[in-house]
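Researcher: I'd like a structural prediction for the single chain below. Treat it as a standalone chain; there are no partners to consider.
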Amino acid sequence: MAKEFLVIDAHCDAPSQMLRLRDYCKDNDVAQVDFPKMQRGGVGASFFALYIPASLQGEAAYRYALRLHNALAAQMQSAASVAASTPSADAIVSAHKAGKIAVLTSLENASPLGEDLSRLEEFYNLGVRAITLTHSADNQVCDSCTGKGSWGGLSPFGRELVQAMNERGMLIDLAHCSDETMADVLSLSSKPVAYTHGCCRALCSHRRNISDEMLRGIAANGGIACMSIYPLFLEDEASRVLAASGLEEQMWIEDEFIKDPSSEQKRRAWEELQGKLNALPRPSVEKVADHIEHAVAVAGIDHVGIGTDYDGIELTADGLENISKFALIFDVLKRRGFSDEDCEKIASGNLLRVLRNC
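Model: Treating it as a single chain, here is the predicted structure.
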């Protein structure tokens, strides 16, 4: 089903995995995403995010963002026969028609900008076309949904950044933002915005999920809300299951692998832990469809997409362990009565429209 139309994943943390030495040209045995898996899953385009941990600020965040960008650029050069960097909606469509996977670069967490708008221009020139304003803590731009409410929404610099991104034609991403930050952005932005990866708070109480009020606000703005496949965003029971498993206490294993990605021993230890995580009872693809249906009911069919968060999550919905299985989402939606036109809008049409209008 998914292969009948262009499919765009609005959020993937691929560059972080590239720093961990994953070759995206290969069909890796243990990987959520690589180019062969994208091809099998009918996913023709993705936002590859330069993810900056909240622990990094200022120059450290800036230098890390450049490391991620360089790792992505090197892999894109190696993958030139199968993938293309695409800085616009039209470029995404052209690459898809040419049989190539389209990659649009985003920046997850605006910390590398500091309070210097010239760096916005620098990242634009590097190909970045979307910025997630914050991550798991408040930063110089705004409050995070898991922060302390330092600004009560956008900071003064954050307000300048919204205007500058509108003027530059860069997509503002509200994922990880507090409700107050979302409301401030929606009141200020003259262009459509996105919420690239998360789920509906009405169905799961996780703080990262979006409220119906904000869904309606994004629709009124002409923007898009993209649903994730992360179990903890899909149902509250998943958080209880994970906590009871004790596996969260072993996440230091991933940290050790990140520090030394060339160590086969540390890689195998992390892969073993991932296997244990994915052996836990997890919500299925049906739950993903539940959140898509709810978002459509609240925001409308023209304002919903999919942003998996693959390569940034330690476990996935049952049945969606890697991106080669992406088409299952559309199979479920079709069974629930979504038309081909509806599915195409969710798959790519809505996001392409937003990109063209931002």
